[in-house]
Amino acid sequence: MEQSIKDMLNILKESFIRNNEIEWVELSVNSLNLINVLIVSNIFENMSYEDKHKKLIEKIQFVYPYYEGYIELLTVDEAYQSGIQKPVTDDKTDDKSDKLRSWGELSSSLKNEQKINQLNDVQFDVGNPKIISFYSYKGGVGRTAALIHVAYILASRGKKVVIIDMDIEAPGMSNVFDPKVFQAPKFGVIDYLFERLTKVDGMENEVSITDIFSEVSFKDISGRLFFVPAGNINVDYLSKVDSFRAESIVNSNANYWEEFIEDLNNQVKPDIILIDSRTGINGWGALSVLNLSDKVIFFVYPNTENVNGTKVLLSAMKEVGYKNYNIVFSRIHDDKSGKKKVDELWGQIKNTIFDEEELSDFTEDELSLSEPLKVFYSSELAVADYYPVPTIYHIYSPIANLIDEEIKDSGLVSILAGTDRWRIVKSLPYENLGFGEIDEDPTFFQKTVYLDKFLDEDVSVITGKKGTGKTKLYSMMLKHLDKVKSMTRIDLDNTVSISGHGDFSIRPINEFDEWAKMVNLGKASWENIWMAYLLVVLQKNNQLNNLRNGKFSNLKTLLKPAQKDTMGWKFEYTNIINEIIANPMHLQLVQDFINELDLILQKRNEKIWIHYDKLDEDLERKVYGKEAVEGLFKLIQIIDGRHIKNIKFKVFIRQDIWESLGFTNKSHFKGKTIKLEWNQQDFLKLALKISLGSDEFKQIVIKYKSIPHDIDYMDIDSLKESLQILWGIRRDGTRSQYVVNWIYERLTDAESNTFPRSLFMLLKGAQDQELTYEHSSNKLPPRDRLLRSASLNIGLKEASIERCDALKQEYVKLKGAFELFERFTDTFSYSEFDAVYRSTEWDTKDLLDILKKIGVISEKEDGNYKFAYIYLDGFKIKRTSKI
């Protein structure tokens, strides 16, 4: 038969084709063994249809015993008037279609530069529903079952969903719904399209849009679900299917599919349209995937035949830049062997759709996010009489979530449409905001997970890396205590917050050198020095006025110079401290003094919280620094041992310094120490608070998501949605990482420390980069966000540079080690590390331990090491494949 068809095709070409540029022949045999023929030739000029047909029969009747199917004989002008175009055959073809219409045309387009990226340019039209096709290379993979369950889930979430059965040659979806909730309409989509394709001008349509759909009336859903069947299966239906080609419904002169969607939209106004596509490599399947849809979901059964067929199609799509698809492995056996099989087959597909360069650009986390969705085999589904099956909705929820995300993405496009995008980007307040403002402005402080823990009066030690917000919390307690009170249920009304040491108090610097000498000579102890220093601080803050004279008269006289309102540390204060620590009687009086003050506070139901900050900056580089800091904690132990109830201490100290301290009874602070860490929710609150400093940005956000008066009480999902206007949902298409995860993971070090200042630098750098595109003609702005991924990439580099600079300041002694980082790739072995440092002052193992401890590197399961992403650009570390 195949040879006969080839012979017939050759005969027809020889008989009818005179000009290969404008005339052509198409020949095929359909599933009912009927022969379909299309001839476009000017030989037919001035001939009636009967004469054309007679001439055809003369040429082929002795070649192949056939039954006629679809026969169309046209002149070149008649073909043009009908919207029928010559198929693409080589790279010289001038294809004016907007999309590829068949698998053959897709294959041909690989040689045609005009087609590159055409398929990937599909954009959602504001006001129209999103159209998604469910496609599979082979049947029996659970595609239809998945579509129905996904449609139900979306409808149950309040969406208006339309299902269209485009499995034209094997329809039957009408039978899977319970007759109690669904009655099939009189006609289907084929009836609608066929009538419009074949009708004579001037005739009225008999099949209207309301004749071809019915509602599936589930009572337990808040949305609505409608179904458009292919048609009612009978001889008339079969004749219609075989009478026209799939491509003809979207020809350039009369796009009947667009007319259908417009009628459907006017009648139902759906949020989403789900198409059940024809399987295999055929015209109807190609039509659904390549021309009718905004997005395709490929369903693959985990065997070699399905995977190889799918790989062929995906490989072709990749060549023309088609990315609007996702992959679902379906009917997987839920056991170890089934999951292993999927992993193996996914490896084959992954290597088909991603280049080596793309794979090397992914982190391990991103690769896991790009993996296919998985639907496991369900015995309940296998024996069900009707769909959907309520007990297995969870199996299909991930697919529904994916589509829900598509709808949200479309909502972003709708909101940004018609706005002055560049004006909004320029209004974002990152440009004019400095670090000092971030640290001091209460607007940029929010209730984080650690706030209530910090406000526990028994917590004395607050650790964290540089940049995690210790100084911010210190400043809030001293300058904006009312703001803090509004964020917590802990009663702080009768609490006075003062600085024991830090930016918001006078503090000695060089004086510590003299006191260190006294300690070395045995003339003083660091805990006594801190106790005398504390008394000066209390006097400066007018907390000693109510102490009785008598016993404390001499001490109060000694403290009088500290009552002066001065801006800096005065030598008088140093003298006070020196006199106290030199006189044992004074030291005893100071302790009694503190006891007396505590009793007064208890009677008044008042409390004093004393905060210490900048100990690392002021003392770390001193030879005696560690011992001096340990003295402060010894003083707190002494005061706690005296059962002082209403005077509390809060010491902000860098995490690594705290861990290095080894004073006696350090365990006293167990349960009284917290580590400041920013989780993703805290991070997003800060990003939103900063961004809402722009009124223009705020106005478009509230159109998309309502913003409560107090952002601190927003849940993480609401925060993510509110920021989607700023940076989108995913990085690049539906197979890439969510932007919020991408940012958070890249601004987090190897010890899970995340840095608010790094977030600010990323946003500022991204805004600066985005504005460079304003007048670019070849870099169009994204329609669903303000800051594109490329701009965020530049912002990340800026954040990395700032973070590395902070690390150099934080660990001055490691500066020489940091300078050698540029010799490494992001992943390295012990031997590679040793080769660089063995000839330096650093011991290889000790340095590795230090770098792990401070969050620069982490050890992998295979024994190798990797740098945290936040440090790559700033230290000029080379990136390699993460596979």
Automatic annotation (TrEMBL):
InterPro entries: AAA_dom, P-loop_NTPase, ParA/MinD_ATPase, Sll1717-like. Residues 130-322 form the AAA domain. It holds the Pfam family AAA_31. It comes from the Bacteria. GO terms for biological process: negative regulation of cell division. Keywords: ATP-binding, Nucleotide-binding. One of its GO terms (cellular component) is cytoplasmic side of plasma membrane. The keyword ATP-binding applies. GO terms for molecular function: ATP binding; ATP hydrolysis activity. This is AAA domain-containing protein. It comes from Paenibacillus ginsengarvi.
